[in-house]
Write a structure and sequence with these properties.
The chain is of the alpha+beta class. The chain has one domain: FAD/NAD(P)-binding domain (3-Layer(bba) Sandwich). Helix content is 34%, strand content 31%. Strands 1, 2, 8, 9, 10, 11, 17 and 18 form an 8-stranded mixed beta sheet that branches. Helix 1 packs parallel to helix 8 and helix 8 runs antiparallel to helix 9.
């Protein structure tokens, strides 16, 4: 596998993936035995994972389907098992201190509903897989793109250092503010939630028993996700004003706030990692494909984190695109329009469903109308008493 600074034979590729995050790198790993020449362009070198007792403040809830995909790639088994926590149950509470809904792996006959894993561990594992890829996979890192020129028969990617790469297909995997998407003039519908996702890790007094907790509160959505031993990861999707307050608190004050907001479900808390925040936005992409272009991951959609499904949605993009390209048969042009349309048709329903659900729930629980307050909490209670609906919701989240 060639790195930046090496001579890249011919500068011609079947596929160029722009963006080496978890989703983009996973797609490349899924194509490493496809016979296609694939280049991955990433502007930032990944930082080494520290071998100490520290924890990444950014964690993901990885669905069983995504874990199986990563295992097939050879990445999941590289994770340190003692730093991955299975989720056996989810407990979700409304904002009236009464309404709730519970999800259980036992109810749907699966070992776990999800796994909680650190972002840096996942990134390191997938990049380790790429290191063992054959010569058909070339990683160009660090490198930045300067321009893309789409032509009928191919696309040309110009790097800032002057190198010119030619390809049959460009894959944009460069995040929610995608440069590739902008270069292709693909329109998006977006709105800011005026919320910030505040994340931090805590030690807790009581065992979490592999339960993921979530509270729909009047001041945002609070989630406590289980980490190994008596630790949890917090994601508090709060208003910008509330987020500023949370990030300005002392460690002890923040612990007391989270304890109170979570009804002391896990007892007293001690801060492990300082709180950091990221703005929350809704982004709907009007086109997933254009001639010789595909968007995946956050470049293809941006949803509220209340369902914990953003990264899984992106990994399903990579999984579907890789399956289509690996099964292309006699089609030698992997940028052929029919292949790209097949991907778009396969992914539209899943993406739209999660966009509607997450955006709708955010709006529903971010509304102080007394009638809506009663209806939303009643809805939680009714759903909790309908096993068929609950199972359908869980089955979708397991993919």
């Amino acid at each position: 596998m060639s790195q930046s600074g090496c001579i890249i034979g011919g500068m011609k590729f079947d596929i160029i993936v722009i963006g080496g995050g978890l989703v983009g790198a996973s797609l490349v790993a899924a194509l490493k035995d496809s016979g296609l020449k694939v280049a991955l362009i990433e502007p930032h070198e990944s930082a080494p994972v520290p071998y100490d007792e520290s924890w990444d403040s950014r964690v993901y809830a990885i669905s069983p389907g995504s874990a199986a995909f990563l295992q097939k790639l050879g990445a999941w088994q590289l994770l340190a098992s003692e730093r991955v926590t299975p989720v056996h149950e989810m407990a979700v509470f409304g904002d009236d201190n009464c309404a709730h809904i519970n999800f259980s792996a036992y109810e749907v006959g699966v070992p776990e509903l999800a796994f909680i894993a650190e972002n840096r561990q996942l990134q390191a594992a997938i990049w380790e897989v790429l290191k063992s890829a054959n010569e058909n996979v070339q990683v160009i890192c660090p490198a930045k793109c300067a321009s893309i020129d789409w032509q009928e028969s191919h696309a040309e990617v110009q790097l800032e250092d002057g190198r010119l790469l030619k390809t049959s297909l460009v894959v944009g995997a460069d995040g929610v503010n995608s440069w590739v998407r902008n270069q292709a003039n693909i329109e998006v519908s977006r709105h800011a939630y005026r919320q910030v996702g505040v994340v931090a890790n805590f030690g807790v007094e009581l065992a979490h028993r592999h339960i993921a907790y979530q509270w729909f509160r009047r001041d945002g959505v609070l989630a406590l996700l289980p980490l190994p031993d008596k630790r949890v990861s917090m994601v508090w999707s709060a208003s910008e004003e509330k987020a500023d307050v949370l990030r300005g608190l002392t460690a002890e004050e923040l612990c007391r706030q989270v304890e109170e907001a979570s009804s002391s479900a896990l007892g007293s808390m001690q801060l492990i990692t300082p709180p950091v925040g990221f703005p929350l936005n809704f982004v709907h992409v009007n086109q997933l494909v254009k001639p010789r272009l595909v968007l995946i991951g956050d470049a293809a959609h941006g949803i509220h984190p209340l369902a914990g499904q953003g990264v899984n949605l992106g990994l399903r993009d990579a999984r579907e695109l890789a399956a289509i390209l690996n099964a292309r048969g006699m089609q030698t042009d992997c940028g052929h329009w029919l292949l790209l349309r097949r991907y778009e048709l396969a992914r539209k329903e899943d993406i739209l469903a999660l966009e509607l659900v997450t955006d709708g729930l955010q709006k529903l629980f971010n509304n102080s109308n007394p009638t809506l307050v009663r209806l939303r909490n009643l809805g939680l209670e009714i759903t909790n008493r309908l096993p068929l609906i609950k199972n359908q919701l869980m089955q979708h989240a397991l993919n």
